[in-house]
């Protein structure tokens, strides 16, 4: 839990633009992360690409719709977060857009954001360790204030892993966008806008006609890049939708995800996973109680989850910051670059190279991602 969080008075003249821009009767919470903290770097580590329609960032405010389990059942809550304090004394203001907020919902949001944004993770030992390693020191100094994010659920981590297997990150994000756009539950504040958008589109599946009519089975074959697909799919849509839950996907008939560009194997993996979790047969969150080795074994027993996906879920879903997905091609390239290696390392060599960083290997992985975003001029 964040070490200082409370509801703010709605008539406060000190509220920042986020509070004035949204509905006046929506609750505003304040969170105080452990310093240093930068919301922009943390959100981009979670977001990865500008085309991501689930985690939205406008340069100042982070918005998302999140599914929460409450005593009365699942609730979709839209939130907007803005950082109003500097990295060394950070404060976050969180605006909730929900018709009926309760103390239970506010507590659940605080807990989820602590997990998602790493608000209470203390990186002082990491920074002290990194200062002694000149190969990576400039990289880590450049992104001081980043906190390691996690997906809200292990299920969402596995959805991301399956979607991004053996394709570019741009294509993986495109596939995830389609899942969200078609099967994610809308936030209540956005529901009316969503009905209008769907009526305007004339179809429940927001798939670009160039792909829908072409008969291709993979997004790469469509010839559309991530940006053009994003603009085509989303268009004027400003509806915030939650990541599809296992229940949202469990009853889908075979072929539904294929029509969105997923391969047959990926569709089968997602549907089987969704049905196992929705039925209670598989409790992914219980993996947090296991050792790395035992959790890895459990993940590898799931259809469609190989070593890269399992290690990805350990890092991004279970918060195991000592885990570096050793089969990650981008990770290999970055190790080759920063360590000035003659050739790109394989899995076993990656493990050896990262042995001195065994407690922080996952943090290096995230810094490599941020460096890539900076090279793309996404970060300045």
Would you mind describing this structure in some detail?
There is one protein chain. 43% of the residues lie in helices and 10% in strands. It has 380 residues and is α+β, with helices and mostly antiparallel strands. It has 3 domains: 5-114, Alpha-D-Glucose-1,6-Bisphosphate, Chain A, domain 4; 123-144 and 306-380, Endonuclease Iii, domain 2 (Orthogonal Bundle), CATH 1.10.1670; 154-282, Hypothetical protein, domain 2 (Endonuclease III, domain 1), CATH 1.10.340. β5 (73-83) and β6 (92-97) form a beta hairpin. The longest helix is centred in the last third of the chain and has 16 residues, at 264-279. The chain is globular, with a radius of gyration of 21 Å. The model is unreliable at 1-16, 18-23 and 190-236 (pLDDT under 50).
Short recap of the structure:
This protein is 43% helix and 10% strand. With 380 residues, it is α+β, with helices and mostly antiparallel strands. It has three domains: 5-114, 2-Layer Sandwich (Alpha-D-Glucose-1,6-Bisphosphate, Chain A, domain 4), CATH 3.30.530; 123-144 and 306-380, Orthogonal Bundle (Endonuclease Iii, domain 2), CATH 1.10.1670; 154-282, Orthogonal Bundle (Endonuclease III, domain 1), CATH 1.10.340.30.
């Amino acid at each position: 839990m964040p070490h200082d969080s409370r509801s703010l008075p709605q008539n406060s003249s000190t509220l920042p633009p986020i509070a004035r821009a949204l509905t006046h009767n929506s609750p505003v919470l304040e969170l105080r992360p452990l310093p240093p903290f930068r919301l922009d770097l943390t959100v981009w580590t979670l977001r990865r690409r500008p085309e991501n329609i689930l985690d939205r960032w406008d340069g100042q405010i982070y918005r998302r719709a999140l599914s929460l389990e409450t005593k009365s059942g699942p609730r979709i809550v839209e939130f907007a977060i803005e950082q109003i304090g500097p990295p060394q004394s950070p404060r976050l203001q969180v605006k909730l857009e929900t018709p009926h907020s309760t103390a239970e919902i506010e507590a659940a949001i605080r807990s989820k954001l602590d997990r998602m944004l790493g608000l209470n993770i203390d990186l002082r030992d990491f920074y002290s360790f990194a200062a002694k390693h000149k190969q990576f020191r400039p990289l880590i100094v450049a992104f001081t204030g980043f906190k390691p994010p996690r997906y809200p659920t292990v299920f969402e981590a596995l959805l991301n892993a399956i979607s991004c297997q053996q394709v570019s990150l741009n294509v993986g994000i495109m596939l995830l966008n389609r899942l969200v756009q078609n099967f994610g539950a809308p936030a209540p504040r956005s529901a009316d806008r969503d009905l209008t958008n769907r009526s305007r589109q004339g179809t429940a599946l927001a798939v670009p006609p160039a792909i829908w009519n072409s008969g291709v089975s993979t997004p790469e074959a469509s010839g559309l890049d991530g940006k053009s697909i994003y603009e085509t799919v989303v268009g004027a849509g400003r509806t915030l939708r939650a990541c599809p839950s296992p229940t949202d996907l469990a009853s889908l008939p075979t072929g539904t995800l294929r029509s969105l560009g997923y391969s047959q194997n990926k569709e089968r993996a997602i549907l089987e996973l969704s049905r196992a979790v929705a039925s209670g047969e598989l409790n992914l969150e219980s993996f947090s109680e296991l050792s790395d080795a035992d959790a890895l074994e459990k993940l590898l027993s799931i259809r469609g989850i190989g070593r890269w996906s399992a290690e990805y879920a350990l890092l991004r879903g279970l918060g195991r910051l000592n885990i570096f997905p050793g089969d990650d091609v981008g990770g290999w390239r970055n190790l080759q670059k920063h360590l000035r290696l003659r050739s790109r390392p394989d899995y076993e060599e990656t493990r050896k190279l990262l042995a001195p960083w065994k407690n922080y290997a996952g943090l290096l992985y995230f810094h490599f991602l941020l460096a890539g975003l900076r090279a793309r001029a996404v970060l300045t």
